[in-house]
Write a structure and sequence with these properties.
By secondary structure, this protein is mainly α. The protein has one domain: Helix hairpin bin (Helix Hairpins, Orthogonal Bundle), CATH 1.10.287.540. It contains three helices and no strands. It starts with a helix and ends with a helix.
């Protein structure tokens, strides 16, 4: 997870950009913080999906084969 102070800075810079008074160096910082936030979000989401098992109402495992292969490969490492 991204550190709290970085998220706060990201939000402050986004608000400043929305207000229309952001400087070019702050804009670059905002871009970097957004990239870091999205990278972290995607990584966390991927881990969550990779640890998911899908069960239908009848109790059968209907996890997609692609996801089962990913889970199997992950467990073999």
């Amino acid at each position: 997870m991204l550190e709290k102070h970085k998220i706060e800075r990201l939000n402050a810079l986004a608000a400043k950009k929305k207000a229309g008074n952001i400087e070019s160096d702050e804009l670059e910082e905002l871009k970097g913080l957004r990239e870091a936030y999205l990278k972290n979000f995607r990584s966390s989401f991927r881990k969550q999906v990779e640890n998911t098992k899908v069960i239908d109402p009848e109790g059968k495992d209907v996890t997609p084969q692609k996801l089962k292969r990913i889970q199997k490969n992950k467990n073999e490492k």
